[in-house]
Fold Phosphoenolpyruvate transferase.
Amino acid sequence: MQRIVVLAGGIGGARFLRGLQSAAPEADITVIGNTGDDIHLFGLKICPDLDTVMYTLGGGIHEEQGWGRAGETFAVKEELAAYGVEPQWFGLGDRDVATHLVRTQMLGAGYPLSAVTEALCARWRPGVRLLPMTDDRVETHVAVEEGGERKALHFQEYWIRLRAGPDAQAVVPVGADQAEPAPGVLEAIAEADVVLFPPSNPVVSIGTILAVPGIREAIAEAGVPVVGLSPIVGDAPVRGMADKVLAAIGVRSTAAAVARHYGSGLLDGWLVDTVDAGAVDEVEEAGIRCRAVPLMMSDPEATARMASDALALAEEVRA
Ligand code: GDP
Ligand code: CA
């Protein structure tokens, strides 16, 4: 049985994973999820990326939106607003609140996030082993200028309240340098046959996972093909603010620049969209095998083809 390890953020990671499951139904898939977007609000511990993967693979996701629960209502949010409770920019749905109550209660009882995630997944049966990158607290902060003042904001505040409007001057995964990989993370990488980077955000999703000491090294040393798919198509992110956070770390928003940013020390293969076929040579000159294929996850079939193409490229670099 093929053992596949996937580093995943939220929407991009989750949708790709669904394609991977249909392209490789027999594979044993371990997902290492980003927890740098996690935030404590209203006394609850919120893990947006883990939940997006869990709900998407478990059939509970709001399909069009890409995050949150299907059939969601917002009575709790309205009641909190009636009390004037801040922040009002974060919309936690009623169904979602139940997930967060379970998580927060278990964390309060002393269970690590990895055990809590496993417990939540017992309900959702995502068909993958979903591991948080770490059980330790890591929070991505974004430095911006607001009203002539330089401020560090939680990533969620930058993304949701400010809609990534101001330029990001720096992106810092606070706490990552002190964090340890969650139980099972390094073992899964060491036992993997292939490691995939879905088209997740290279800075605040995959970059944050790689910032946990030991994870990048384990991937580089695993001696198996590492293949990624570009989240940048036609020199812009397909959705989200990857361009803003790439600029903050001095990387251009092109498929080739993102591949070079990961580097040939980490990445063996890279898929770019057919509109970026002109970038293939630049990526290969950097020592990374590159192919141009359609990379829009417009429907389940197209997404499954992207996953097959990634696995095929992995076999090519293995040979
Ligand atoms: P988030 O945590 O919800 O932001 O999700 P991820 O980090 O997993 O994925 C976000 C990235 O997915 C963004 O940079 C998008 O450009 C990328 N993305 C979303 N949809 C597609 C798609 O259909 N094709 C490609 N190639 N990238 C996509
Ligand atoms: Ca995210």
Observations:
- Residues 8-13, 49, 52, 199-201, 205, 229-231, 233, 237-240, 242, 295-297 surround guanosine-5'-diphosphate (ligand 1) (CB under 6 Å).
- Residues 300-318 form the longest helix (19 residues).
- The chain has two domains: 3-135+177-318, 139-166.
- The mean pLDDT is 97.
